[in-house]
Amino acid sequence: MSFHRLIIATRKSRLALWQAEHIKERLESLHPGLAVELLPMSTRGDEVLDRSLEKVGGKGLFVKELENAIASGQADLAVHSMKDVPADLPPGFMLAAITSREDPRDAFVSNRFASLEALPARAVLGTSSLRRAAQVSERYPTLEIKLLRGNVDTRLAKRARGDVEATVLALAGLKRLGLTVGTPVPEDQMLPAVGQGAVCIECRVDDAKVIGWLASINHEPTATCVTAEHAMLAVLDGSCRTPIAGHAIFDKDGALYLRGLIAKPDGSELLATDRTGPAADAEAMGREAGEELKRRGGKGFF
């Protein structure tokens, strides 16, 4: 039996390490003789916590250092939360696998209140997400939004000590960490981020051996849904500067159903659309949805 060594670049947060360890275990179980190691790294997005992401460069700050590690040969691949991946990858890189999606909804977390509806006027909700803030402000305009940066554990600690009365986090992250806090927020109240709940693996486009190994853990239904969502994001030139949400699923008849929305950061205006079609049209559906939202929003949204 031949032996091969793979190195995964990952962020150092507990959730990121859980995700990278999960991918390591799956690859090693499927490919005897494959030894996988983790290379934990700190990214710019992890280090700058006193400003919102859109003010320091956008969501790409969570992946750039990991991509540099691949480019330099320190690592063979990188594991990301799909929602942290920008619409466009650098030349020479690809997403070789997207694993089965966890629950994509957001979760409401509070010491005292059971739901967003239960929060009193002028209650402080902490979030670093413009998408969450805009949808909350549109539906609950009397609430106050406060910047709340940091990983899952950091944000939960800030909520626990009363820095804010409530926060909203990705339900998938809470579940993966075994945390039983939070109440799911229905999607008709808060549409998830593009790619939320999915984990993706990035590598070089010319690394055929790694691409072959990763093909074994790709979950095609999730990959198809994310393709539609990311195609919409790419048309909208999505970044942390624009509140954008999108989620695709397969309906009971096997058709792909995509919902997307854009909003003004203050929640004063929200535009939504949807598409239904065959899986083969995932990318085209996403582009069409993005073009519609871009046309309807005009310069006021971008």
Note the main attributes of this structure.
five-stranded mixed β-sheet, D-Maltodextrin-Binding Protein, domain 2, 3 domains, 13 strands, 302 residues, 33% helix, Double Stranded RNA Binding Domain, globular, alpha/beta, single chain, 10 helices
Number of helices: 10
Mean pLDDT across residues:
91
Total strands = 13
State the CATH class of the largest domain: Alpha Beta
Q: Give start-end ranges of low-pLDDT stretches.
A: none
Sequence of secondary-structure elements: EHEHHHEEEEHEHEHEEHHEEEH
User: In total, how many domains does the architecture comprise?
Assistant: 3
Give the helix level as a range of percent. 25-40%
CATH superfamily membership of the largest domain: Periplasmic binding protein-like II
User: Structural class, from secondary structure content?
Assistant: alpha/beta
Gap between N and C termini, in Å?
A: 55 Å
Radius of gyration: 19 Å
CATH architecture of the largest domain: 3-Layer(aba) Sandwich
Shape: globular
The CATH topology of the largest domain is D-Maltodextrin-Binding Protein, domain 2
Can you give a write-up of this model?
It is built from ten helices and 13 strands. The model has no long low-confidence stretch (mean pLDDT 91). Helix 9 runs parallel beside helix 10. The radius of gyration is 19 Å and the shape is globular. It is of the alpha/beta class and 302 residues long. Strand 6 (124-126), helix 5 and strand 7 form a beta-alpha-beta unit. The protein folds into three domains: 4-100 and 198-218, Periplasmic binding protein-like II (D-Maltodextrin-Binding Protein, domain 2), CATH 3.40.190; 106-184, D-Maltodextrin-Binding Protein, domain 2, CATH 3.40.190; 231-297, Double Stranded RNA Binding Domain (2-Layer Sandwich).
